[in-house]
Amino acid sequence: MEKSTQDSIPFYSPSQPFGFVDEAAHNAQPSLNIFELNSGFNVPYWYASEPITQIQQDENGCFLDSDALVQTLWEKDGAVQPPQRFVPLCFKAAVPHAGNYRVKLTLTARAEEEQLLIFHGCRCLAWKGSVRQGAVLSICFSVNASPIIPNGKTAAFEKNTLDIAVVGHCPALDFVSITPIEVPTIYLAGDSTMADYGAEYPYHPAACYGGWGQALDLYLDGSVTVCNHAHNGRSTETFRNEGHFDLIQKQLRPGDFVVIQFGHNDQKHPHLQAYNGYPENLRRFIAEIRAKKALPILATPIARNVWTEQNGKLTYNDLLHDHAQACIALGKELNVPVLDLHQAAMDEIIRLGRDASKIYYHQGDWTHTNDYGAVRAAGYAADELRSLGEAFPDYLPLIQTVSASSEPWKPEAALLLEKPARLAGVKDPNGTEEETAAQDHQAEKDGGDALARLLAAVQSACGQSV
Q1: Residue 91, class by beta-carbon neighbours within 10 Å (0-12 exposed, 13-18 middle, 19+ buried)?
Q2: Closest CA to 193 of 378, 329, 327, 33
Q3: Residue 407 has what pLDDT?
Q4: What is the 3-class SS of the chain, one letter each residue?
Q5: Would you state the pLDDT for residue 357?
Q6: Cβ burial 136-147 (10 Å sphere, 16+ → b, else e)
Q7: 252 with 186: CB under 8 angstroms?
Q8: pLDDT at 101
């Protein structure tokens, strides 16, 4: 897409292979509401009929005035809220086949952008930074298009489109090109702490879930792509049994990488403890990846923000210690690099303390991060990759792609979106599915004591002590 060749604003549809996506497109094309196959940005169901995304065009390209759109929405709702939420400018284009692509884009900052965000795929963060008013930003990044089994589905869906979402005050997109490329792919196999998540808009980084796999691209130089197959609630067992690992296996090529991170859900089952099924399942993953001449990487389960309190004193409660140590021991045994995300996250949580750490987690959650936490956790992974040095020479093509640390992202608190009184009668068309999805995270929201009781029950059944 180039602005000089467009007489009108293109909107994506079955007959238009590239264009922008708004609420009307979502309503007309149900497939746009499967977040893993799209940009990941959706309005809450009660705003589905609201014409929120109003795209304009001028000499700088196509844009929307996010501040004005959000202000108008809040005024309709009878409440003026802080101007810190954004309406994303979402662009979608068809691609001929699964594989890796280089995306180049140019945009102009029509207003001062103190924190511009550029996402690709399902809210994978490719770039963040400040852009002064009137400046032109030209960037390129690498993207993977891969079949995936979406949440709640049992079969793979082809992903034959690429998505770009620009989040800012008023950026104008005027050029996009997409070109097939041949570069290694980093496949991610894991659970909810690594997974892709959608986000409701008007968007705020603190008011959504975010897995660290969505932010890993921020720390890479574009000479590799990231393909995230991590899913909520999966263990080393269910990830295989439900077909997610098979999808990775079918696409693996020599020289690709697979990062494996499990433990949060394994520890809830007697046969997947750190001394039995968990390391054995990891061992099988590693053997099958190596059989494809690809390169496995283990990652310890990222630490939770869970504490115990006695006599008014808080003590960190390391519920994932055994699984983290089993992962490290297996890496040493099989000469597989290990990214110790558990230790890195735990050190930072203890340094900040329980309450100060909450800003990096979804509201009321002790395990699942928001977008701020996802970027921070992806930084742990990048630091761990850089630290491998020359100890693993076969991995140097990946290690060398890890760029310098991203600019720190100062978190700001934000409440979750709530249904306004004027739309109280709007019913959720997917109420059952939404309730099921919410339950996926409920055990982790119940706090450290509930998690400790769950683990104690599992280990008691195995004749172990907590």
Answers
A1: buried
A2: 378
A3: 74
A4: CEHHHCCCCCECECCECEEECCHHHHHHCHHHHCHHHCCCEECCHHHCCCCCCCCEEECCEEECCHHHHHHHHHHHCCCCCCCCCECCEEEEEECCCCEEEEEEEEEEECCCEEEEEEEECCCEEEEEEEECCCCEEEEEEEEEECCECCCCCCCCECCCEEEEEEECCCEEEEEEEEEEECCCEEEEEECCCCCCCCEECCECCCCCCCCHHHCHHHHECCCCEEEECCCCCCCCCHHHHCCHHHHHHHHCCCCCEEEEECCCCHHHCHHHCCCCHHHHHHHHHHHHHHHCCCEEEEECCCCCCCEEEECCEEEECCCCHHHHHHHHHHHHHHCCCEECHHHHHHHHHHHHCHHHHHHHECCCCCCCECHHHHHHHHHHHHHHHHHCCCCCHHHHHHHCCECCCCCCCCCCCCCCCCCCHHHCCCCCCCHHHHHHHHHHHHHHHCCHHHHHHHHHHHHHHCCCCC
A5: 97
A6: ebeeebbbbbbb
A7: no
A8: 98
Sign of CA dihedral 283, 284, 286, 287: positive
CA angle 133, 135, 136 (to 5 degrees): 140
Which residues, given as ranges, of the chain have pLDDT below 50? 433-438, 465-466
State the angle between helix axes of 277-291 and 244-251 in degrees (0 to 180), rounded to the nearest 10. 20
Residue in the block written with tokens 């059989």: 291
Bridge partners of 142?
102
CA distance linking residue 297 with residue 187, whole number of Å: 10
| Predicted pLDDT at 389 | 83
pLDDT for position 442 = 56
Task: Provide the token pair at 286.
Answer: 């590693």
Q: Phi, psi at residue 337, to the nearest 5°?
A: -60, 145
Distances (CA, A) of 176 to 36, 85, 95, 139, 404: 22, 25, 13, 10, 26
CA 129 to chain centre: 18
| Side chain identity at residue 302, one-letter code | I
